[in-house]
Amino acid sequence: MSPMNVHAKSLGIGVAIGAICIGAIFYVITSNQIIKSPSQSSTEAQGNNQKIQMPLLIDNASPVFGSKDAPITLVEFGDYQCFYCNRFFHTTEPDIVKNYVDTGKVKMIFKDYTIIGQDSINAAHAAHCAQEMGKFWEYHDVLYNHWTGENNGWASSQNLFEFAKQVGLDEKDFNTCMSEARHVAIIKGSVSDAKTLGLTGTPGFFIIGPDNSVTKLSGAQPYDVFEEIFKSQLQKVK
User: What is the mean pLDDT of the chain?
Assistant: First the structure.
């Protein structure tokens, strides 16, 4: 599966969703605390000498996209309502996938940093429900391909259910997952990780090299920036 490059308009949904209630997902993220174990591995982020606990980068995350044996890991902290996250998805990510993920050199992980609004949280939760059925990345792509702005309704509960049908999810299972708010903890944990790492906006990226060195990037950087780092890190591969 490769990210889709088709810009699609948000769907107009005319059918009500019965008794399924997404309200259980409505919560306020207030915790910025994370427990660290002395046994957890750590590394330094290039450019600021910041010690980073590896679980902050790889826990509370999506499934790996790409080969699990890829020597480089690209971790993105994103918000499905974020304009610049959407720009990265459409303008930079396809080339990264084509040249580095599909060739087994880089694997990708997505982590939630839901900072824009409630629809951000609902969209993130829907993606994790899709993950239960083995289609996280397909749903991730559909969300970004139907983005039309921030807090304007494109990530409404009705649309989220329609997106699930688009990628072939079992409607009953998806509805149950959403109504039970099964994945609130992983979203809150990822947001806490982002805050602990000092991120103040989205997207934010961490590139983990084959020697576990970490390079931090802020914002929707152009492809050339990622490529330069990837090439430098690949030189460490024996």
Answer: 83
Sign of the CA dihedral running 87, 90, 92, 96:
positive
C-alpha Rg value of the chain to the nearest Å = 18
What are the Cα distances from residue 34, in Å, to 27, 60, 99, 160, 191? 19, 12, 35, 30, 10
The answer on pLDDT for 19 being more than 70 is no
Residue type, 116: I
Which residue has 């409404």 as its token pair? 156
Strands annotated E in the chain: 42-46, 50-53, 72-78, 106-112, 204-208, 214-218
Contact 223, 74 (CB under 8 A): no
> What tokens appear for 36 in the block?
């660290």
What pLDDT is recorded for position 50?
56
Residue 207 has pLDDT above 70, yes or no: yes
Q: Bigger pLDDT: 55 or 34?
A: 55
Structural domains of the chain sorted by starting position, each given as residue range(s) with its CATH number in brackets: 42-234 (3.40.30.10)
Q: Does residue 196 sit in helix, strand or coil?
A: helix
Model confidence at 201, pLDDT cuts 50, 70, 90, reads: very high
**Distance, C-alpha 226 to centroid of its chain:** 17
Q: Which candidate, 21, 218, 233, places its Cα nearest to that of 122?
A: 21
- What are residue 5's phi and psi, to 5 degrees? -110, 15
